[in-house]
Structures
1.
Amino acid sequence: MIMTNALVKADPFALPSWRWDVAEQLCNQPGLKAVPEDQITRDALSYLKTGDRQKFPEIQTSYQIFKEDGLRRAELEPRILVGQSDSEIAGFCKLTPAVVQVYADLFFCVRDFPGGSDWKLKHAVGKPHFHGYQDHNLRQMWNWFGLTGQTEVLNWVIKSYHDELKPGDEPTLSVYLRPSASVDLRVQALIAELIPPILQPHNRWEQKFMFDSLSIRLMVTSEERDRALQKYKKDRVKYVYQYLTGQIKSQPPETKSHNTAPGSSESVFKKIQKSPRSLEPRGS
């Protein structure tokens, strides 16, 4: 039995490359007499049997992109996810629209599932979304941006990366965050917030950043908040860069105690920490 268009929609474990997988299955198991229902799958089967690159140049190029799993694939997939046309994607990725279409039909069949879905999240992003991104998870990060449906944000994130990328750089997330990077701090901060695992209740660094974030919200003036927020973003970027590259210290530095004015933001926050109910209306 082979996968079909009807079956794949009922199978949460089917991969986005399921049509290519069907072609490989039929090529490797000649005893199966099934005929693929899609022309692109039949072409892929012929390509696998004959190895005719001249007859199937788009399949050959798409297969190379898929197997290399490098920067070309990292950019191609999120642009498919976000809903850009084949012509638009071809312009960004320096490919032909025909190659984009073949890749989307054969190796990344997400257009069969309009809108966001858990299936797309599972297979296009996967574990990094829940357990944290590693330095090599650039494709998964960009795919997450593709799933948000925000084309302008995706374009901004990818362009910022290409502007920063130097000859010889590996396609890693740390390119965004390295100390010498000239990437917009807003992009850096956005990337940095997404990289660590969602839940880290015992991570003292995350506790520190949570404390800093709450403290900023309690500040009285916008000037004070803006200044503190800029520092927070820079500290966050530095921490996540060290996290990605294995340079993080085991514990955050101790905060030096200092006197605070009775009505200052910090004193208010400390009061909230000590007695959370002190600010609640009486009788509640």
2.
Amino acid sequence: MTGKNRMGKNRKGTAKASRPWPLSKRSLSKNLLAILSFAKVAVVGVLVGASWTSIAVAESDVDSSANSFEAMDLIEAFKASSEGYSSDELIIRDDLREPFIARLAKRNAQAQQSEEAKNDHFERDALLALLQLRKSGKLSVRSTRRGQSVDESVYPIAEIAARVVTDRHRIGLDTMLADPVYRSELSQEAKKIDAEVDDYAVRKAVLGLRKRRALKPELVLRVADWGREIKTYSIEQLKGALDASEISTGPGVYLFRVSDGYLYVGEAKNLAERLTTHLTESDRESLAEFLSGDASGAVTVELHVFPRDSPASKVTVRRAYESELIRSRNPRFNVRP
């Protein structure tokens, strides 16, 4: 019979086998989750071929030309036009924004000389300069009035439309709301989802989503763009485009949507072929049932089309992108990654 002494040897003099410190099930689970989370991030980094130390910084919302405005001119024009509302409210309301731009143009000698005030860039730069002034704490005008509240039903529409515009042009929310061209595009995308939705309500909802931090770009898109092109269709438009062979037969990701959010996100090596399958007899039971129902006419489809020679030609890359979209868009009929 052998026993153990204080030196860690048994009585026969042989060293005892070392034993690892026992882990509880809870500790083991936490360690495994940490390892898996790290592995997921590492895989995404490898897939897009980017070093984590050299992730590209998103383009700044504030154009350098926005700095050409005098702070006093901005403040005076804002005081005269805002009617007690905030700078955000001025930007999204036509009846406040237009007088502000007109007053600022009169005070801005450079704009008068070049007639730049008639250009969309003048309005964009002026509004971005106003926001920059507010964020720096130098807009010394207190808001005394609040804007209208927005029904919660508008928020999903605003999220879908805003993501399309910001993803398509790789711009921030401030630029989208300040630039007349992008602001108009936001309204167009929102009306594709609900033709009756109010422009002001959509813009107001975008501001609300920004405060909730609900419109952050996907991790994959911060690393690489892959030359994607974003297009949107109603179901009928998509059917017509498929019949006319206008939908890409290359790789991509697609999102089925309705006015209260996303239905399904998927990826495909051949977009046209995969979408045809979904519209004829989808192999996704929940989606097939929805598309065959009375509400199918309200469905819109968003396509993220990639060049054939892009990294998205690899299924692992498309699935990484698809996984990020599922995580951020929370579609109704997908299984969470």
